[in-house]
Design brief:
The complex is a heterodimer of chains A (about 375) and B (about 80). Chain A is an alpha+beta fold and about 375 residues long. Chain A is about 20% helix and about 45% strand. Chain A has a five-stranded antiparallel β-sheet with strand order 11-9-15-21-20, covered by helices on one side. Chain B has one domain: Sandwich (Immunoglobulin-like), CATH 2.60.40. Chain B contains one helix and six strands. A six-stranded antiparallel β-sheet of chain B has the order 1-2-6-5-4-3, with no helix packed on it. The N and C termini of chain B lie far apart (about 30 Å). The chains are: A alpha+beta (about 375), B mainly beta (about 80). The interface of A and B includes residues 16, 23, 27 and 29 of A.
Chain lengths: ~375, ~80
């Protein structure tokens, strides 16, 4: 199918050897031309092995002729000159191709290289004969405010864009956003780096209030935008409140409970053990446990525990438990503190009502933002 | 798969046990044989090969082996005589 080799061999007693050779090779079109001359055909894929075998048997090969696609293919691609010419032609094609293969951006610092390349790709052809580099330069200059100078050349298959960005003080870069307060509290110290402060020492601010605006007034009275930058020291107040009732109703567990076990597979109940008991007040806890370690059949155990509850009336005056309630309120107020080392003051107030007392605890912390 | 030789043997009960060799002659131009035991003579005029229990001799002119495998043989040419010894 792909090729064949026709051998003309010289030698006697070919019949006997053909019987041996047919065990290894497919031989066809065997013609005895003369008594000691035979012509036969073998598949091109085995021609080398067949040749070796024939020579080993002591025959002389007078002629070897190849036919078909494979011999032709190997003849061409087995020739180093042809391979070299093919590679050279490929390289030349790539080098001489009219398309831009690569973009090189030089001099970008704050601008994104990807953004510039995408802009050029979207707005200009990749065929270098259709690109006017002056147009590319103008388009880049108009569309990118930060560019102060740009040059563009095409070298081979590469477009080189060399640009210089506008020189501005570092604080004049950015999004010009104000500085907002991160906490509720009282300002105790201000350190402005750039921008205009809109608060003063002693002011009470809330979280989200503007502290510094991103501009300043120059000597001519014009508003100049800058990146707002400042640090503030603040007294931050953390408060907590707990109300104690002298007479109150609490719900507690009676100690009675029951358990319902269910085996589930893909959310379906396969097996259930346990019966429901009706409690007038109850509390339920559910636990899941994997019964197998694979995901093929993920059997799970669902254990539902139902506890019976009851209402208990507790009579307890504030004086009896005041220390405990105050400590509890303090603990609650301390929850938002970053560190105990930064606490500078703490105090509490009590409000008495009929049968109830409210404890209000305040922890004052010093924070810098 | 249809087997020509098998079909003939099935129709003639006595042939069922004959498994030595099969030869088919197509218009005296092609001889196809299966079950050969080795080529004995090869020339344009005479081709002979061994089979189980004897030898087959084919005479003719301009004959050649179209195909030769371990147990089949295909001969082409002007076939005049096929003899079994």
């Amino acid at each position: 199918m792909f090729g064949e080799t026709i051998f003309t061999i010289k030698g006697l007693n070919i019949e006997k050897n053909l019987n041996t050779l047919t065990k290894k090779f497919q031989i066809r079109d065997i013609v005895r031309i003369e008594k000691n001359l035979t012509k036969l055909t073998v598949d091109y894929r085995f021609h080398k092995a067949f040749k070796k075998e024939i020579l080993k048997l002591g025959y002389e090969i007078l002629e070897e002729k190849n036919r078909g696609f494979l011999p032709y293919f190997f003849k061409i691609f087995g020739n180093f000159g042809v391979i070299f010419a093919f590679l050279l032609a490929t390289v030349l094609y790539i080098v001489q191709s009219p398309y831009i293969w690569q973009y090189e951006i030089l001099g970008e610092e704050n601008l994104s290289e990807t953004e510039i390349v995408e802009f050029v790709k979207d707005n200009f052809s990749s065929n270098k004969h259709q690109i006017d580099t002056l147009e590319v330069e103008n388009a880049l200059y108009k569309n990118f405010e930060k560019i102060s100078f740009v040059s563009c050349i095409i070298k081979g298959q590469t477009m080189i864009i060399n640009l210089k960005e506008r020189l501005m003080p570092s604080e004049m870069y950015g999004e010009f956003k104000p500085v907002y307060s991160k906490y509720d509290g009282k300002i105790t110290a201000i350190n402005i780096v750039s921008g205009t402060s809109v608060v003063k020492i002693g002011d009470y601010v809330e979280e989200g209030d503007i502290l510094v605006q991103p501009y300043y007034l120059d000597s001519n009275g014009n508003l100049q935008q800058v990146e707002a930058d400042a640090s503030f020291t603040m007294e931050v107040y953390h408060t907590a409140e707990i109300t104690h009732f002298d007479t109150r109703v609490e719900i507690v567990r009676t100690g009675e409970s029951y358990v319902i076990d269910e085996i589930k597979l893909f959310g379906l109940t396969i097996y259930k053990n346990g019966n429901n008991i009706n409690y007038s007040l109850n509390e339920t806890e559910v636990e899941y446990e994997n019964l197998v370690n694979n995901n093929l059949l993920p059997f799970k155990l669902k254990r539902t525990t139902v506890y019976e509850l009851k209402e208990v009336t507790i009579n307890e005056s504030f004086e009896e438990v005041s220390e405990k309630i105050i400590a509890k309120t303090r603990e609650k107020a301390l929850e938002n503190c970053v560190s105990y080392d930064t606490i500078i003051d703490e105090f509490y107030t009590l409000k008495h009502f009929t049968g109830a007392t409210t404890v209000n605890y305040v922890v004052v912390e010093e924070r810098v933002q | 798969m249809f087997n020509f030789f098998g079909e003939i043997k099935n129709n003639v009960k006595e042939l069922n046990k004959l498994e030595n060799f099969n030869i088919i002659n197509i218009s005296n131009k092609i001889i196809y044989a299966e079950g050969h035991r080795g080529l004995v003579t090869l020339s344009k005029e005479v081709i002979s090969f061994k089979v189980k229990g004897g030898r087959i001799v084919i005479e003719g002119s301009d004959m050649f082996l179209m195909e030769l495998t371990e147990n089949t043989i295909k001969i082409s040419g002007n076939i005049k005589k096929v003899e079994s010894f």
